[in-house]
Specification:
With 70 residues, the chain is an all-alpha fold. The chain is 63% helix and 0% strand.
Amino acid sequence: MKRFGEKLRALRTRQKVTIRTLSQAVGISNSYVTMIETGENKPSLDIAFRIARFFQVSLDSMADDEVEII
């Protein structure tokens, strides 16, 4: 799950979702989204699931470092 933040940033920018929009939809702070994207923090399973659901991707694809998000 080392690449979760990298995948999150890629999805967010590709879909033109702001940090604020994502944070409000998922129920976390803007700074927490930034910390996840930069790798400073890892999301809990619950938060990771909410993020995956928001982007309509599987949690497996977000958590598995070997799987690319297309």
